[in-house]
Amino acid sequence: MDFIPWAQPYIQAKEREYLARALDSTWVSGGEFVNGFEKAFAEYHRKKFALSTSNGTTSLLAAFLALKLGAGDEIILPGYCFLAAAHMAMHLGAKPVFAEVEPDTWCLSARAIEEKITTRTKLVVPVHTYGNICDMEPILSLAREHDLIVLEDAAEAFASRYKDCPAGSMGWAGSFSFQATKTITTGEGGMVVTDNEELFKGMGLYRNHGMVSGTYFHEVAGHNFRLTNLQAAVGCAQLENLEEIIHQRRHIGELYDSLLAEAPGIALQRFDKAVERVLWTCALRLDPEAFPQGRDQVIGQLRERNIETRRGFVAPSLMPLYGCPPLPICEQISRQVLCLPTYPGLTDEHIEYVSKALLEIRR
User: Fold this and answer.
1) Cross-referenced CDD domains, in alphabetical order (predicted)?
2) 182 tagged catalytic
3) Which CATH architecture does the domain made up of 242-361 adopt?
4) pTM higher than 0.85, yes or no?
5) pLDDT digits (tens, 9 = 90+) for 135-174
6) 194, 249, 270, 291: least buried by Cβ within 10 Å?
């Protein structure tokens, strides 16, 4: 079997066509594709506003800055996730407070959030991991009760839905990433969606050096978080190809389920009935009794079979940087999770080969 990467982008003729049009226009920084990408993205999420950024991390930072997150504030987020939101909060002097996740969905719950709320809590950041979505109704209800802002980190869950609501569309704002491995990509890139005009305008200021549009008058000490017209051209094409991307990612998830869901020693990430998933990656937990060699050794064994996989995220309680108290559930998940190849273009033969190889490695 030829080498099977963990991820690769879905690039078709339209991406090349739109990129050529952007180049030919000579508008390689801002331009019509940026405006078009933002408009289409807002419409897809049923939101009034969408602001493109240079990556998913700066989309979070733009939102935090506009929300005036700072010293003395706390944000609550899951202890199993990619930690971009935590880092942006720390840069602003705020404190990330990590909560346990559910042991089967690996997502944040309202119950876990409530245990972490203090008088300093300003923001809750549900991170929708691997294409799953947190149970948002009780989270939003709890946030209203305590007058907290909810900002969804939907970087890994674009196109997934919760009770027919797109991921990232349910809180005050939703943040997205278009990094190379994501469901749609612009190479690097990000987006924030919201219905709040004040938040939208504030994020726009921080994205563009704190300047009022079309002037050199600076209202705040801003940054440069702008997405280029070249990147947005690719993003527009990706959105037009979205139906096929969703179809393939759903098929991949269904086939992995059929091959691995009942296998002893393997526990696939669970998705609630309320979630209509679009997988970012097919992720599972390896039972140490079935895989006594450990997850990292399994990665090496699969690599010998020309299969690239990824380990899960590391719980913040296992890293000195965060000063985080123990999170037993997150720590166990982080030691056991394995992420399998998941991308449009992955064939049934590839999926069957990957699954068979994993089962052969099992004790």
Assistant:
1) AHBA_syn
2) yes
3) Alpha-Beta Complex (3.90)
4) yes
5) 999 999 999 999 999 999 999 999 999 999 999 999 999 9
6) 270
